[in-house]
Structures are given as structure tokens and as C-alpha cells.
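Workshop exercise sheet. Pairs work together: one partner reads the sequence aloud, the other fills in the structure field after running the prediction. Swap roles for the next sheet.
Pair: D.N. / O.F.
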Amino acid sequence: MDVAAADPDTVLDTLDRRLVCALQVNGRAGAGRIAEVLGVSPRTVTRRLVRLQQTGLVRVVRMPEAESAAVGALLLRIRVLRGKGDAVARALAERPDVPFVDVMLGGQEVGAVMLAGAGARDRLLHGQLPATAAVTETTVHAVLHAFADAGQWRSGHLEEADAAALAEPPAARPAAGSVPLDALDRDLLARLGEDARQSHAMLAAAAGTPESTVRRRLHRLDGAGLLRTHVTVDPRLLGLAVDANLWLDVPPGRLAAVGAALGRHPQVHGVFATSGPANLMAAVFCPDHGGLYRFVTDTLGPLGVGRAETAIVARAVKRAGVPLRPPGTEALRPRA
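Structure field:
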């Protein structure tokens, strides 16, 4: 199911934004728990959640475990002929091993994240992309370290105490591949990758297994750090009109400190040490272009970043594995 891209005139009211932020903190939190933290009735939370999800403006999905998925992932910058950006982006978005796709401002660059193994990677980079007449150049960056990813970003509409009340205790993070998964585990994870807010009862019915078994399995998977969630929502609904990728040159001795500092910044929804011409990439949300300028001058400047290339996202095509419909869908109006 596609998620609708938001109409620029669409707005979420304060409670909607707090609810989105609550889901960012804990995507599987029940309506009762969210209602208690937000100070409203469970009925209000349920009604708002149903409306946000049924209109397609908010979707909660399971994120891959960061260390095993992000490190070694490829960040692709694909230059295309004018007018071919959307077609190339759609083709990449159809791949299950490409969870993030953006068309950049101007339409002649497509950005993507690829999680494939060596075989699929080489077929795409050495065969399919060079054979596509619309593609003029491809730059590939390998992720060497993940300081923060999209599943960790918070929109900042909750007080720290409220966010802490919703957050789950930190789960142990096992080494990549150290948690054995059987067919039922993989089935449950796949279903949560489509909709992470499915209840134990819904998952049990879909998987054809007792609810008690599902509950035990999810508890085990959660303890292994495999139930991280991501809220797919158009940032414009949260007052953030500009999305940009910053390709940064940082002195090697400062790389860890700068990456960690950016990973803690509330506007940053992803920061990675990379191979290639730039050694750090940060994805940022800003309220407007003036806000992006202030981020570059006031945040990057004092960190000692040597060079910053700014690529502004014109349209998000796929986020966290969720395809996004083109703009023009019906706007969501705030309701009581």
C-alpha cells in the first residue's frame, strides 16, 4: 500500500504532531499508553490514529537492525538525463533491496540507499544502470559507520519527560547474524515491515499460529533489537519544508566527534561515515531554505567541517521501504 505524499497546504494540528512524535518514540505503543502521556482520552488517540493511517499520511513500519543493515549499505547518486528522474526513481523504488529513493531538486539526480548483497549490487551497478540510456553517471558511497538513521529521528513535538515515558528500555544489541530466525520469525518481521502497529491477535490470525506464540516471539525479537520502527510521514506536515542531503569533508581526526554531534541534532534524520569523495553524509530537515542556511553556518561551521555540498530533495519516492504516491492527494484537515 502506497503512502500519499502530503499536499503542501495540508496541516496537522498540535495534537496530531504530538501523536506522530509519540509513534516515533515507540511505534508499537498502545492507544491507552499514548493517551496517558499526551493527557487525552484513549478514544481520541484511537480516532486520530485511524484517521492518520487510513488517509495514508502516517504509516509505521519495522526498520532493519541498524548495525547489520546500514554498515556496508550503498548510498547512490545517479545522474540522469533531464526529464528521466522520475522514471529511474520509480524503477529503483520497485526493488525490495532499495528502501530509500529521492529525486533531487532539478530532476537530474536520483538518490537511493541499497542494501543488496554483492551479486545484486554488481548486477545493478555494472550492468543495469550502465545499460540504461537515461543514466549518465553513478557515484557510489559505502556506509562505513552509522551514527544515526531514520528510525532514530524525532520531530521534537514532545517534552523530554513525555518521550522518556513512552520509550522502551534499551534492548541488547547482539552481533549481526547472531540471532537465529526461523520461518515464523521471518514471517512476523515481514508483516511488521508492512504495518508495525498490528496487534498480537492480528499477527496470530495472519500467521495461523496461537497468539501466545506470537507474543513470545515478538518479546524475543524485541529483546534482540529487531523491532525498531520508523514513522513514514511527509515532513511538511510537521512544519519542515526542506529536506537536504549534506555531503561533508571532515578531517579524519574529527570524523567521530562530528558524526556523533550531528547524530544528536534534532534536525538530522540520518548521518553516516562513508567512502568516496565525501567522508560524512548527513540528511537534514529544515523549516525553510533560510533554516538550511542557518544549519550550514551555525551548526556545521563551529564543528570545523572543511567542505559541504548541499543536495536538496525535490520529492521523496520511497522511505523505509514504503513507496510514496506523487503529490495531489486529498488534504487532511485537523479535527477535534
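Discussion prompt: The longest strand covers residues 135-148. What would you look at next?
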